Amino acid sequence: MTQDQARTVMALGILAVLSLIPIAVALIRSRVFRDWDLTATVVFLTGVLANAPTVAYVIRAGRPQLLDPRGETVIGFPGWVNQIGSVANGLLLATCVVFVVHRLLVTRPRINVAPLLALTLVALFALSDGLHGQQFLAPRQFVLLAVLLAAVVARPGRAAFLGASAAVLLFTVLGGIEALVEPASVLRECRPDNPCGLLGVHYAGVFTNENIFSLLLALGVPLVWLGLRGRVRVLLACYVAFLAVATGSKLATVAALAALALLVLLRPRLMSEGGRRVSPGRILLTVPVLGVASFIGLAAPFHHPGADRLGDRATIWEMARTELGGSPFLGFGGKAWSGKYQVGEIPAAVSPSLHNQWIDILYASGLVGLVLFVLLLAHLLLKGGTAAFPAAACVLLPVLLASVLERPWSFDISNSLTVTLVAALLIPAAVRPATAAAAPGSGSSPDALPVRTPCHSPAATAPDRSAPR
Length: 469
Fold this sequence. Notes:
The chain has one domain. It has helices at 3-32, 38-61, 79-107, 113-131, 139-153, 158-181, 210-227, 232-246, 250-266, 280-299, 307-310, 312-323, 336-342, 357-382, 385-402, 418-425, and strands at 187-188, 202-203. The longest helix is centred in the first third of the chain and has 30 residues, at 3-32. By secondary structure, it is mainly α.
């Protein structure tokens, strides 16, 4: 680590400690307005437990890099990390089951359509696995199914965003503390084929890879903005976007800054907050932005500048394209691509996915899965009409941008980014203020007036009167 990198890491650690002040303010305000409920808890645990093995590994072991005889990075963790993963998956599975039973027996929840579409896509991945002789349902597929089933009966809106933003902010603080305690463990090496970013480092925090951390941050920017209350949410959203830049990932930098710019432009509020209306012109400006991002992501694997610009991505896209004709409608299953690493057909770095959301879904679940994914995106954007469109657009823009060169959402297994998928699936639909009522017993207090009147401007602290879910 150079002296400049050491200073950068120290600054990131200090910023993380200082961020505890606005985080505390935001969480206290959430408690005053009774925003945290069982939905927030389940979403928060989805983020924390899915990443617990990685965080434990980095904090305890640092960042050792094991290479195979070919010089490629070895995928996998030591046995004790896998044991933590098994326990964490079991806890998350049990939590989701208890949550679903509680919601069905006690609260009579409304059924959310978006998680049902996602569940159908996951089932299609598993079906295609079975048809091609792969394991029908792996343990982490069961966990993903349980999490999505919990989302079907969860309460959409602020609670889900709050739980996801709390998980994102927790990892930013843990990364900062690790930067102060073990500075070398939060950085990854800069190489000619992977040069450092704007700050001269690859900041990975408590994750094994800066790309994973950067995607979590980029997708978390709008969740922080929407999940928290008051002006402090703007400060924390900017902080999360800054950390995405600090990771050195160019893709995450673009996605995070674009999300932040759209948030500033649209200034979305949840349906029941009232206040300003977004002008039709701004909405009309946003639609082509989302359309262009989707088109580029879908077209990239089929029309790209080649390996000279995209490296291994271009190679694996070409490999996948030549195989698509073998199963065009149902794909090859979620485990088909990663299985190529086991037989030495692809390197470890590209084995988790095809590094593009669209061709990843097309390869694993065929045209049927691609249609389901498009329907899911359309439903999330349109289900609330023009009133809910700004919030949905801000949540989905970084996802669509990241989808060009990465696979932010997995429909095969639960992973580090599943928490962002669950939060996005719980984007609230339009609610008529005249019919909005306090949420029935969901293991939390209703979204009504705060327990005590906070000393803030009425506009910044307008209570959330979400419809019961």
